[in-house]
Amino acid sequence: MTTVLQVGGLMPAVADVLARDYDAVVHDPARLASYADSVRVVVTGGHAGVDTALLDALPGLRAIVHFGAGYDGTDVDTARARGIVLSNTPGVLDDSVADTAVGLTIDVLRRLSASDRYVRAGRWATDGPYPLQRTVSGSRVGIVGLGHIGTAIATRLTAFDCPIAYHNRRPVPGSTYRYEPSLVRLAAAVDVLVVAVTGGPGTRGLVSRDVLEALGPDGVLVNVARGSVVDEAALVELLGAGKLGGAGLDVFADEPHVPAELLDRDDVVLLPHVGSATVATRAAMADLTLANLRSFLETGTLVTPI
Ligand code: 8YV
């Protein structure tokens, strides 16, 4: 009897425990019929694809446990409508993702990666000093999505004397940062726009062409959320046309594929979705994922429900 189904790849600290302690099966569409009726819990990475078809195929499914803060690979509305409960791993990755956002901001403005390439290519000796860059301290920063991660980013950048404003659907009660109800106006008023909002259907294309145009030729976009939040085609086009000042991207619309046009640009820093990828953070995410699974199987409730 397969009670626990693993959908998509998971780090060994989770996958090995699932296999050893729960006799979990790794989802394989070709073998689905052999376990479909007995599965009660799915454990999955945030973007693995627990879609409507898979939900339809698992009549006994009661819980979906996500490894990660994001759960945009899951058809959440359909799952909820069927009484299926869901969990994620909030809190434990805020600091690492915020560190990554600040790193990208500094790297794009100060061209750290680009000037590292300059040194390695031997150009310092042949071409002379690297071109002057932009000051990070005091830059005006807009945060799209002032949740836990967005707040951790704001806290860090406040220490760099950056004035912070943010855009959410509604103002955050008690927040001292300036709320801007129009994302286009926020983009027009800042030097750096940092995207930290939840992915999924509700935020798809939120950072539209209009927003990127408002950010303008001196504006920088940093995205540690999901590629789907940004109009990536417009981003590529505007960078190419000199109508956007730069970008620091940890996430992409079609991972692991990165638009080829970005690869040669020194005004862009590209990371392979590593926002939460530290040893300690991933261990904490693994622990919380397994705690949710254990809790659901023992008590029917989740530790960190969505
Ligand atoms: C992980 C993430 O890469 O937490 C998230 O939402 O994007 C990252 O921490 C991902 O969840 C791993 O599957």
From TrEMBL:
Keywords: NAD, Oxidoreductase. InterPro entries: D-isomer_2-hydroxyacid_DH, D-isomer_2_OHA_DH_cat_dom, D-isomer_DH_NAD-bd, NAD(P)-bd_dom_sf. Residues 103-275 form the D-isomer specific 2-hydroxyacid dehydrogenase NAD-binding domain. It holds the Pfam family 2-Hacid_dh_C. Coiled coil: none annotated. Residues 28-303 form the D-isomer specific 2-hydroxyacid dehydrogenase catalytic domain. SUPFAM superfamilies: Formate/glycerate dehydrogenase catalytic domain-like (SSF52283), NAD(P)-binding Rossmann-fold domains (SSF51735). CDD domains: HPPR. This is 2-hydroxyacid dehydrogenase. Belongs to the D-isomer specific 2-hydroxyacid dehydrogenase family.
